Amino acid sequence: MNSQISATVRLGIKSLLLHKLRSALTMLGIIFGVCSVIAMLAIGEGASYEAQEAIKRLGSNNILLRSVKPADATRQQGGGGPSRGSQLKYGLTYQDGARLQSTIPGVVRVLPMRIIRENVRFNRNESPCQVIGTLSSYTEVAGARLVRGRFLCHLDEVHQDNVCVITTGLARRLFPSSDPLEHSVKIDAFYYRVVGLVQEQSQPEQRARAGNAEGEPLDNNVYIPLSVSRSRFGEVLIRRSAGSFEAEEVQLHEVRVQMKDTSAVETADPQIRTLLKRFHEQDDFEIIVPLQLLRQAEQTKRIFNIVLGSIAAISLLVGGIGIMNIMLATVTERTREIGVRRALGAKRRDITRQFLVETVVLSIGGGLIGVVVGVLTPLAVSQLTTMKTIVTVWSVLVAFGISGAVGIIFGLYPARAAARLDPIDALRHE
Amino acid sequence: MSKESAIIEIEGLEKRYVLGGENDVYALRGVELRVEPGSYMAIMGPSGSGKSTMLNILGCLDRPTAGSYRLGGENVAEMPDDELSEARGRMIGFIFQSYNLIAQLTVLENIQVPLLYQGRDLRAYESRCVDLAKLVGLGDRLTHRPNQLSGGQQQRVAIARSLVNDPLMILADEPTGNLDSKTGREVLDLIDQLNGQGKTIVLVTHDEKVAARAHRVIHMKDGLIDREVRNREVVPVAGGRP
How far off is chain A from B3, nearest CA to CA, in Å? Predict the structure, then answer.
């Protein structure tokens, strides 16, 4: 029995090798199909992985509140004409932070942040940066990792010391050849002593695109005590642009609320909204819940995978139809051979098996090549572009499984057509 | 020969092709035939005489509409398709006019094909296949493909293939039809030789010189056996033509 099967497989391969080009072209359909299934799913998986990582970095136990310039205020300004200045007051306040801490159940910490864009310099090196005025709990809430020195401490806040902590990327730019610790950097008119270096959680190449959702775009941060930020920069920030200036009074740009667990996040979200609405007449803040974003991202990924998978599955289907077409032609071409085999004692199922083996060899062979190409394609894509790709084991198994199934499904009809031939007619066939 | 030991026993064999209503065509109308083991029989007849239908039924490729056909004691007239296939492979060795070798297989593999469908282990039978190839004079061509052989050589491969299952009878359909007279003679000599070793041969031809080699010639006409000639001397009646 075993020798019969191996003989049938060997015979199938021989018959396919008889028409090498035809077999190769037939296989090509399956190769493209399997390859596109794997490559598309790998690219989709990579894209959603990045989005999910970006959201995870925000912390699933956290709720982010951000000050937003109200929409109607922008309109007013637009109509205000050139060379006219205006002052806007909006956003989260110190009081909001205190209220959140005292009212919302399940709050572990409330971390206020003032984020100001300024240039930072050391000697002749200058770099744009975000000056983040915050508290000592930043590292725990935002998950930044201390590399050297220390982070801001409570005494810095109380004494309003001119100290700062900078990110490693910024340190490399400002201090290409010297140790940043115990040097002072200049921001605006004041000098700040560098006491520590931190590493943000995200990888530099991911940050560029993940930046918007995260609100922490580049690895260019300088952390100073909140009280220092208040006293040195003031509450009113003036931005000048050609012929006009605008002044904004924003107390806090961002507040991060760390909850005790994910279930507390769910309940706190509407509570925070209700609480803040009471003290904010205009719509000048937004609430970002990473947990919800994560769920949405997962949902999006599912849909994305289904869409990509279906497109790729259609190409496999087309490959299958190609196989069926060729096999039907082959059956017609080899009618005489079928007749001879029947005369020499082959049963109908022997003939079915023979042709089925040929289609399965075609589709499995194409499937194997497709898997190899399909695994290499995403690798090449991530080499040539910044796109991240992840080849999952299940996508390879699914693609290969479908290619085998396609071979059997689309091979069955031609094989049965071959077996149904009347041996007498088949022998007489020219 | 006793009645029990006949290889072929045919009684009242009919074959009707249903075309609907009164248009039905009778290809065979009650043929009676017995063939003893070791005999060498030729079937002749003009086209439309039922000769081909007879061949198909003898070869278990077709089933009669009525009557009985016992091959080697088995009633093959009523076998289902699978059993009929099995019976063909086990009891009949086919030799065709156009050799009908399988193009993608070598000489040795072509000889092995019937074994494959009998579920035999090919390796165990390899030496037998090589011996058969030697018997037909192709021992040095085992790995050649049919398109590398002459017509006569291809027909020899087909003969070796027909012998591989040690069948009850060899059914040859115009075995020399595609060959020139010299190679045709060689092939017929080989068939004679097989008959000499005790193989039952049934040969269908319209060439009287070919039929002349048989011990027994059946002439068919209008779906019946018209006459039968049992001795060699009578045959040269039509031997005037080359």
Answer: 28
Whether B61 and A336 lie within 8 Å, measured CB to CB: no
What is the residue extent of each domain of chain B?
38-62+86-238
Read off the pLDDT band of B241 (50, 70, 90): very low
* Helix, strand and coil in chain B, % to nearest 5: 40, 25, 35
CATH class held by domain B38-62+86-238: alpha beta
For A15, the closest chain B residue by CA position comes to: B104
Q: Chain A residue with minimal CA distance to B92? A: A344
Cβ neighbours of residue A133 closer than 8 Å, sequence gap 6 or more: A113, A114, A115, A116, A223, A224, A225, A226, A227, A228, A229, A230, A233
* pTM, two decimal places: 0.71
Q: What is the pLDDT of residues A175-201, one digit of tens each?
A: 888 888 878 999 888 999 999 998 876
Chain A within 8 Å of B143 (Cβ-Cβ)? Answer: no
The angle at the Cα of A270, spanning A267 to A271, to the nearest 5 degrees, equals 80
Q: How far is CA B132 from CA A281, A344, B194, in A?
A: 104, 17, 12
Report yes or no: A155 and A183 within 8 Å, Cβ to Cβ: no
| pLDDT at residue B231 tops 80 | no
Q: Does B130 touch chain A (CB under 8 A)?
A: no
Tens of pLDDT, residue by residue over B50-65, are: 898 999 999 999 999 9
Residue B171: closest CA among chain A residues belongs to which residue?
A343
ipTM higher than the 0.95 cut:
no
CB atoms within 10 A of CB A259: 25
pLDDT greater at residue A52 or residue B86:
B86
* Residue B190 · residue B152 · CB < 8 Å: no
Select from A254, A245, A116, A126 the least CA-distant residue to A185.
A126
